[in-house]
Design a protein that fits this description.
Elements: H1 4-11, H2 15-43, E1 54-59, E2 67-68, H3 71-76, E3 81-89, E4 104-108, H4 114-117, E5 122-126, H5 128-132, E6 137-141, H6 142-147, E7 155-159, E8 166-176, E9 182-186, H7 188-193, E10 200-201, E11 203-208, H8 211-224, E12 232-236, H9 237-246, H10 251-280, H11 282-290, H12 295-333, H13 338-341, H14 348-375, H15 378-382
Parallel strand pairs: 4-9, 6-8
Antiparallel strand pairs: 1-11, 1-12, 2-10, 3-4, 3-11, 5-8, 6-9, 7-8
Length: 385
């Protein structure tokens, strides 16, 4: 610690270069933390563990293929099934097709079961009875209420695309939960306008009564309908969500590869800075050796300077990340990928990994310049004059 003032003085010797090097650590480290957060969000259950008890039953061929509504009774008879909810993706558009007006729109044939399956959701405006007993009523997330400045009792028109109909919904209740970007309404509206959809659903949400049932139920359901004209595929809630993300490719591999590339780039930039600093002080180091400074002290000074440079940039990068991640989450929640944003938050393990990257860069960037400086003889150093 007694050499800390000397290390800091050396850092301030070339202020512009040090500032640029610190900046080259801040921004890449921010990107690494962001990518790490997105990776963790893919694996995180924003429901606080309640999502582990949910399963999704869809058509084995594709999510766009329908399942018979009659499966509801058979699924309910399977031991371990606590509740079943029939759902349908409506899609369509509100106002226009622009990204700012996109959000999830679902119809359900079992409005009274919705909160039993998604039991982490709480009604904050209106009541469950208000929207369950209103055929044209809608339940909507609080985030959407604020985003569009909606109020209870307001009419919300939706123009269908998959279903060539237009419907007008009345906002009867709003909810708060991990994902507040959805709108739910009664499937009876679709069945009345399009009789051909009656008797079919898009998929089933299942609430299991135990983790043991979660492991057992998928095989039983898929086996039950294996030889039918509408075979099923049953997944956990997290697996179902990640399947949508996987449509973009191997996202996890891509993000991990980018993080590694960025870490190498930081290392090269910092190593170049420390090599330049060591070359500029060859004579000075030789003088220190002449005055009696041992090789290990020279090694520690160069390494300490490199580590301090990297840690300053790392600390600022982590502070910058924690300051803006809330805004990034808010932006994703207000985008068409709003459901993915529900799992985004500050993960301590991601911050720890970012700090580890900063330490690694600081040590290895200064390692070779420090070793060369410590091994150089006094006469070779003084010869540089």
């Amino acid at each position: 610690m007694k050499f800390l003032p000397l290390i800091l003085k050396n850092l301030l010797r070339k202020k512009t270069r040090s500032a640029l090097t610190i900046g080259s650590v801040i921004l890449p480290l921010f990107v690494i933390c962001l990518l790490g957060t997105l990776l963790r969000a893919l694996e995180t259950d924003p429901s606080g563990g309640k999502g582990m008890f949910r399963l999704i039953v869809r058509h084995k061929v594709s999510i766009t293929n329908w399942l018979p509504a009659a499966y509801d009774v058979k699924i309910r008879q399977i031991p371990g099934v606590k509740e079943v909810l029939r759902m349908q993706w409506f899609g369509g558009s509100y106002i226009d097709q622009s990204a700012k007006n996109q959000f999830a729109r679902f119809s359900t044939s079992d409005a009274d079961r919705l909160l039993a399956v998604f039991d982490e959701v709480k009604i904050v405006q209106g009541s469950e009875a208000d929207w369950v007993h209103d055929r044209s009523g809608a339940l909507v997330g609080e985030l959407l209420m604020k985003r569009f400045n909606w109020r209870l009792g307001q009419k919300v028109p939706l123009k269908g695309d998959i279903y060539p109909i237009s419907i007008e919904l009345t906002l009867r209740a709003s909810y708060r939960g991990p994902d507040e970007t959805g709108l739910y309404f009664h499937n009876q509206l679709l069945e009345e306008a399009l009789p051909s959809v009656k008797g079919y659903v898009g998929w089933y949400w299942i609430k299991a009564d135990s983790l043991a049932a979660v492991e057992r139920i998928p095989k039983e359901i898929d086996g039950l309908f294996e030889n039918s004209s509408h075979p099923t595929k049953t997944d956990t809630e997290k697996a179902f969500q990640n399947e949508w993300v996987s449509m973009l490719g191997n996202v996890k591999l891509l993000m991990t590869s980018l993080s590694l590339i960025i870490a190498v780039v930081i290392l090269l930039i910092a190593a170049n800075t420390m090599s330049m600093a060591a070359r500029e002080r060859i004579v000075e180091i030789a003088v220190l050796r002449t005055l009696g400074f041992p090789r290990r002290t020279i090694l520690g000074l160069i390494l300490g300077e490199s580590l301090a440079l990297s840690l300053i940039g790392g600390a600022l990068g982590l502070l910058f990340f924690t300051f803006v991640i809330g805004g990034i989450r808010e932006g994703i929640l207000n985008s068409p990928m709003g459901s993915f944003g529900a799992g985004i938050r500050v993960f301590p393990e991601v911050l720890a990994a970012g700090f580890g990257v900063a330490v690694f860069v600081g040590l290895f960037a200064g390692l070779f310049p420090a070793i060369r400086s410590a091994q150089r003889t006094i006469t070779d150093g003084l010869r540089q004059v």
